[in-house]
Amino acid sequence: MDFRTRIKELCQGQGITQKELAEKMGISDISLNKTLRGEYPQLQTLEKIANTLNVPIAELFEKPNASNVIGFVKVGNTVHEVKSAEDVKNLAGKL
């Protein structure tokens, strides 16, 4: 599942809009939209979204018990391929 779709689902599940998510994060909705439309999100931004939604960062990529996640995350200037929620956890542990 695409992380953008998953973030929308999480917001809907919590009864908030993406604009309200941005406000809770302390950023503009334009900044959040740019992040979500970007090719490779920054890991720090994903962590902030996860913390604001009160979910583990891996849940931004998959529903619990889902599998076969494929995507990319940018840490610094390096783009990492993400094949599983465990990959995201490992990248978060390197910060």
Automatic annotation (TrEMBL):
- Molecular function GO terms recorded: DNA binding
State the organism named in the record: Parabacteroides johnsonii
Which Pfam family, an example, fits this chain?
Answer: HTH_3
What protein name does the entry list? Helix-turn-helix transcriptional regulator
Instruction: Tell me which SUPFAM superfamilies the record gives.
Output: lambda repressor-like DNA-binding domains
Superkingdom assignment? Bacteria
Q: Which InterPro entries match?
A: Cro/C1-type_HTH, Lambda_DNA-bd_dom_sf
Which residue intervals define the domain HTH cro/C1-type in the entry? Answer: 7-60
Signal sequence span per UniProt? none
